[in-house]
Amino acid sequence: MLKSKTALVTGSTSGIGLAIAKALAAQGANVVINGLGDKDEIEGIRAEIETEHGVVATYDGADMLKPADIARMVRDAAERFGAVDILVNNAGIQHVAAVDEFPDDKWDQIIAINLSAAFHATKAALPGMKKKGWGRVINTASAHALVASPYKSAYVAAKHGIAGFTKSCALEVAQQKITVNAICPGYVWTPLVERQIPDTMKARGMTEDEVKRDVLLAAQPTKEFVTPEQVAAFAVFLCSDAAAQITGALLSMDGGWTAA
Question: Which Pfam families match (predicted)?
């Protein structure tokens, strides 16, 4: 479906981003992955994508805190592949603390990586999409783009910002065959989430199942995690012709969290 297209996925060396990169590659798209991690492990991921799907996969270590780095990454991808047809703004970080105890540097980092980086990447990619008359921008938002939780002020603010940015950007390019949407997952089962469980079990005196059900999934009526592969499949659908009239949408994928 996406043969001859090129996708750039930020924050894609693990978790949701990696699942999206693999799913787009499975549909024939060349992919640029980006993110942190061990150099050899990242090279293994890159090579695996190429071997398994018969596409070209490259890695760019652009720092999502640096606008110039982000613009350069998009420019390099466009120069190598001709254009960035699909941009997935997925990079994100989290920190939990009360507002009056929230470290200033953590606030600045979360806003920069979770919100401003999406602006800088989209700004750099849109001219090429406009020139080709086709493009897909997919922002990984969160249920926290629609509702709030305590002690996550920076994250919630950034994700609410992504919601507004998605809508505004979509309206600007609505007549240019470019769609801009945000996927809003609830808790997704990733290594990052999995690593939180032992400490929570110890701190709260709970079993693993109790932590999953009563802490992590307390807000999700299905009491089931979203999987990275489910988010990735949704992203692939948004790149299809069938989704051409879906734009400016905040698409919940949260086990019913935001239905209440």
Answer: adh_short
Whether this model's pTM surpasses 0.90 = yes
d(CA 171, CA 22): 29
H or E element at residue 231: helix 228-238
Q: What is the pLDDT of residues 186-225, one digit of tens each?
A: 999 988 788 889 988 988 899 999 999 998 899 999 999 9
Catalytic residue chosen out of the listed positions 59, 151, 155, 187: 155
Is 59 assigned a catalytic role? Answer: no
**Per residue in 86-145, pLDDT tens?**
999 999 999 889 999 999 999 999 999 999 999 999 999 999 999 999 999 999 999 999
In the chain, where are the structural domains located?
Answer: 6-188+227-254, 189-225
Is 100 exposed, middle or buried, given 0-12, 13-18 or 19+ CB atoms closer than 10 A? exposed
